[in-house]
Amino acid sequence: MGKPPNLYAYPSTDDLAKSLRAYVIDAQNNALERHHVFRVGVSGGSLPKTLAKALLQGGSASEDDKCQFGKWEIFFADERAVPLDHEDSNYRLVKEELLDKIPPDMGPPTVFPIDVNYLDDIQEMADQYEQTLVKSFAARDSVKTPMFDLLLLGCGPDGHTCSLFPGSPLLREHDAWVLPISNSPKPPPKRITLSLPVAAHGLKIAFVATGGGKADILRKIFDTEEGHQLPCGLINTLGQERVSWFVDYDAVNGVQFPSRRGAL
Ligand SMILES: O=C1O[C@H](COP(=O)(O)O)[C@@H](O)[C@H](O)[C@H]1O
């Protein structure tokens, strides 16, 4: 039995952002030491705003405390099958919240959006995105399952993460790296998503959840057997101590999970 996931709770999103920054920079520095590139999978939803707060704040003057965005490869943990400038696009959200605000001397990162030529064929879109991962990961590492240096994930109010929804047959897929979904319970219906084995295989996996609207689902995920079967719960079980949750006090209100709290 490995160790359980880490749960770090903070009084405010400002405090959370400081700690998330330190965690991301540590993951970045370790990755750059290992293979000179930092491969990150990001989600949409509420995450990009908090992430931007974390990464765009000034750190100390030290080299070890800098986001070296020029060495980042950014992939999408899930994406909606819409044009890149559509209001539902996760790419657009990450671009507006983070990418467009990176000072020129810190970047730019290499970003891998979906291929919008396949908006009407999401199986093909998923296959193409998988090929994008193959080019970046398998070419370098010859791996069966790609291991992101860091996955930054959200947690929906139903316990979904990426576009892996509770009870979906996609949760049983073991071979594909990227999957199409045509009937997402949350609009828009057509999406692609990392599969569960890939989403659970990150070297580091961070969930970010803020606000009282997340408290019910976090209680379920951490404190009930039923919650362990939800997509976020499955990643907790598979990822164990590689998983860290960054939450504010409102989101974690009433959670009993007896893990470490407070500062990282
Ligand atoms: O639809 C999605 O929802 C999840 C969770 O979003 P949140 O707004 O509740 O944080 C998000 O992680 C995912 O990328 C997105 O496509």
TrEMBL record:
SUPFAM superfamilies in UniProt: NagB/RpiA/CoA transferase-like
Class of enzymatic activity (EC top level): hydrolase
GO BP terms: carbohydrate metabolic process; pentose-phosphate shunt
Glucosamine/galactosamine-6-phosphate isomerase domain location: 12-245
Recorded superkingdom: Eukaryota
Enzyme Commission designation: 3.1.1.31
InterPro entries: 6-phosphogluconolactonase_DevB, 6PGL, Glc/Gal-6P_isomerase, NagB/RpiA_transferase-like
Pathway: Carbohydrate degradation; pentose phosphate pathway; D-ribulose 5-phosphate from D-glucose 6-phosphate (oxidative stage): step 2/3
Annotated protein name in UniProt: 6-phosphogluconolactonase
Catalyzed reactions per annotation: 6-phospho-D-glucono-1,5-lactone + H2O = 6-phospho-D-gluconate + H(+)
CDD domains hit by this protein: 6PGL
Source species of the chain: Patellaria atrata CBS 101060
NCBIfam families documented for this protein: pgl
The UniProt record lists the keyword Acyltransferase: no
Family per similarity comment: Belongs to the glucosamine/galactosamine-6-phosphate isomerase family. 6-phosphogluconolactonase subfamily.
Segments traversing the membrane: none
Alphabetical UniProt keywords: Hydrolase
Function, as annotated: Hydrolysis of 6-phosphogluconolactone to 6-phosphogluconate.
One GO MF term: 6-phosphogluconolactonase activity
Name of a matching Pfam family: Glucosamine_iso
